[in-house]
Design goal:
3 copies of one chain form a homotrimer. With about 400 residues, chain A is α/β, with parallel strands linked by helices. Chain A folds into 2 domains: about 190 residues, Aspartate/ornithine carbamoyltransferase (Rossmann fold, 3-Layer(aba) Sandwich), CATH 3.40.50; about 190 residues, 3-Layer(aba) Sandwich (Rossmann fold). Chain A contains 16 helices and 11 strands. The first copy, chain A, has a 5-stranded parallel β-sheet. Chain A has a 4-stranded parallel β-sheet with strand order 2-1-3-4, sandwiched between helices. In chain A, α7 links the parallel β5 and β6. In chain A, α2 crosses α15. The radius of gyration of chain A is 21 Å and the shape is globular. Chain A starts with a helix and ends with a helix. The model of chain A has no long low-confidence stretch (mean pLDDT about 95). Chains in contact: A-B, A-C, B-C.
């Protein structure tokens, strides 16, 4: 164990744990102390892993994942985190279960949880539903625990909902802290969260919403940029404005990519659908309106196609501070000339920043592990120190 | 470790283990001593889990599950049991394997078992086949072990067949013991195992068959009730009669739900298909007779629809002893007004007993773990005591 | 720990480890020392398992499998090996991941590997592509490790490619060593690697290619036999000729099954497609040429049907040395009268050698575990000895 790790462990052991017995659904339900604990614990776990130290906190127990949308990195991040701590991953495959046979969410949630420590849920397809579903599961296991059905209450971790993507945005924050040296150093730094063109449509809003909601709380100067019509949820935009005021940061909305990039220290160009489209899509999906969906997709792609100039390329990057802003992406990106004809980012820019975006992704397993550890163990600093001795 | 747990462990350590090196396919292949060992071991493991004590009996090894039908609670119960004991779950996904490429059961069973400790199998779709398949696997691994191909013989656990569902019925028995205080207290208690209306058709017979076969052996007064035509396998009905005679219990068949509920201490209302329908269905499935299957389903649903009054509601419950019988269900239930228009049980009754049915389900992972432990370890009492010290 | 195991562990501890930090893609990229290390380590692990000794070398970490073709024994062998060493298996299900959403191989490989120790890949469907894909993954994780993205470089293990199937052929070699007493005893033994009739078409070439490439290096007299037109990749055939010359063995190609069986000590009759067919098939698959594929299959099956006499039956076996050659197969075999009307082998011969083919398969989990251990641990002899004390 090196000195830095020892110091971090001592600090963690001294601090109160604001996340003990807490779920993690939305960053705006937690205060800055909670983020600091997550980042510190994630950093500790990352160092321990690098130094080949064991972080087995559990002797057994399930970490259950429910993915209602495709996933590679979040799936493997969750599995890696669970395994590193000693939990076994069990995926709820809704095709293979009897959920379609008429089980209620309350019932299923309890039935799978008798020996479960954690439940991670991705449900980002339906606007107004993903977060609601996660809360239903949360209520269900709380009921089970309070009624003596479950010996323990599994922690719910949001692996992406219609509202927020906290394991992503806290991994992003970990990257920013690493890049700029400290959270304090983020104050006044300019971050451009911008829409970018993609040949697909209907990408979730959770990342841009999560980024503006989180980064405005850290005193950053956040610019949200998108073509007219690609709005995010108004509540989250309003809340970001207020957060910026409170934190001494700034928040503005513009409709021009280059304007947003002006003097930016960080750019995060990424495609998303407008929430109005997401609403129509949800209603059509529920109604089984295949014709409507086809038409909606065609309309959106046509609309999208008018925005093909929203591409993060060298010329755009030149507008940023010294032409050297940090380029961020949650991956996978639509890269012009690689996996599409025109995409969110040019090959040149993507390749230049590849080690950075990969490194950014590398924080996610440890952020998830940190959420697990903090929720389950009252003083993880003490416990982890023992593993390192 | 609390005193009750210590006492239980000492008793288990003193007793002979009737299940050492035994598979668990049908309750009627085992004697009452075996059930007592399973229930005691399950109770110990449940207490240990509640007291956050480790029950890691295995350092490595696979627990293989083969699900030929959808499953949530049994799948997760099996996975939880395996994980708690230190085994890793591997599911045989028949879509992803080469079984369709012409492997024989003997071959597959050996090929997956080189490092397997346990194989759990659900195969309840085809009357006359599920149990046979489990025995084929049993023979196969016995061959492998006897011929020096396998270093160990994996224990076969029936996770539901066409005949029996022992992990369910022993969990049910654990619930009854818990509810009434002891197995002895079950003598003379009246249990009504009744058919109930469901808008689906073709549900397996294994639960009602398993319940009448098991509970008649414990001196209970078992009434089996169903509309004319919804017979169970005659062999199992006959055997239940004989068991009741031997145990000093009673067994009768009636064709009226209310009659069965009269003064019952326990009611278990649940839909199933008649075995004659299951036979026709099996033959049509084998013949790929899609037209026939559609017609059979239509006929059965029409027949079912005449039995919509077989619903467990407040009025029915009022007929039971003091109107307060214990309502049991293996879940998921078809609940009127929740997941269907008319179902097996009214919302009111289901909600009233929800903590009980959930609690009932909570025994299953520990019953399965008990079967694993007893089969694999000669004196599990001694071994588990060490884990608690 | 018995004496033989102790002796083997001491020898392993003394030897240099030629596979430390090495991937295992093709046998011809490794020298004989490497095979000896794999076989010795596999034997040690097999003995340890038989003696119920723990071989937990890892406290945590993922063993990732990517199966681009169906698999039972390799899937379970990989899972068993990983579990025995303390790694958790995570399967990349390309349906459930975002790979179809445009991720590059480089990206996916890194995203899943943050806590991965091993990646096993089966990709044998497309001639000229399986090996290339494995090397892409290899390059990707090397990039990740060198750029500080991954804390460790996961070992790539070929679980079958278009070129070779090293975990199979080394398990085969382990069986041969066990059967004949030593590797030295294989010198001059005659092995017939022959095509055999199967009612299916398009089986991979990796096993026959891997067998001739490997066994010629051990001084065996290898005869490759197939009907005109069912050629293997010319490069590998040429290389096998040269290997035989170097090793003092022999290599010849004939077009008559019986001729190949003459005085053979070992026969390995197995169906495959010619590489020309595999090339056409690949191109048609890529072009989505369904009509062409149907026609190709029909043509091949018609062509196959003319070769129905290439069956390993008693009469054929009578031609071998004393009529008692060892019959080998990688399983599953097409057995006449069992899973097809006419197949690769008669029931009589298959049944006679069943314990041998099953035993042969039983080496695979330990060969895979040996590859993992040798690649990850500089001196596994020392480490495993500690586990046995």
């Amino acid at each position: 164990m090196n000195d830095n790790l020892k110091r971090q462990l001592n600090e963690l052991a001294r601090e109160p744990n604001p996340l003990f017995r807490q779920d993690f659904l939305l960053t705006w339900e937690h205060d800055l102390k909670a983020f600091e604990s997550v980042l510190r614990t994630a950093e500790i776990l990352k160092s321990m892993h690098q130094q080949k130290l064991s972080a087995k906190m559990f002797d057994s127990g399930l970490a259950i994942s429910i993915f209602r949308d495709k996933s590679t990195r979040t799936r493997f991040s969750f599995a890696s985190a669970a395994d590193y701590l000693g939990l076994s991953v069990q995926d709820v495959d809704e095709q293979k279960t009897q959920i379609s046979h008429g089980e209620t969410v309350r019932e299923t949630a309890n039935m799978i949880s008798f020996l479960a420590e954690v439940i991670g849920i991705r449900d980002d397809m339906y606007l107004g539903e993903g977060d609601r579903y996660q809360r239903e599961v949360q209520q269900a296991v709380r009921y089970g625990y309070q009624n003596g059905i479950l010996h323990q209450q599994p922690t719910i971790i949001n692996l992406q909902s219609d509202l927020d993507h906290p394991t992503q945005t806290l991994a992003d924050l970990a990257k920013l802290r690493d890049y700029f040296g400290s959270l304090e150093a983020l104050r006044g730094k300019k971050l451009a969260m911008t829409w970018a063109y993609s040949p697909s449509y209907g990408k979730p809003l959770s990342v841009p919403q999560g980024i503006i909601a989180l980064m405005t709380r850290l005193g950053m100067e956040v610019t949200l940029a998108y073509p007219e019509g690609y709005d995010l949820l108004p509540d989250i935009v309003d809340q970001s404005k207020q957060s910026a005021q409170k934190s001494g940061g700034q928040f503005q909305v513009v409709h021009d990519m280059e304007e947003a990039f002006q003097n930016a220290d960080v750019v995060y160009p990424k495609s998303w659908a407008s929430f109005r489209v997401m609403e129509q899509r949800r209603d059509m999906l529920h109604a089984g309106n295949q014709e409507g969906l086809k038409q909606l997709e065609a309309d959106c792609l046509a609309e999208n196609a008018r925005q093909v100039h929203w591409e993060c390329n060298r010329a755009m990057m030149d507008a940023t501070r010294d032409g050297q802003a940090l380029y961020m992406h949650c991956l996978p990106a639509d890269i012009t000339g690689v996996n599409c004809q025109n995409g969110e980012v040019s090959t040149e820019v993507f390749d230049q920043y590849m080690p950075h975006t990969y490194h950014q992704a590398g924080f996610k397993p440890f952020v998830i592990a940190a959420m697990m550890v903090l929720s389950k163990i009252e003083n993880p600093g003490k416990r982890l120190k023992k593993r390192c001795e």
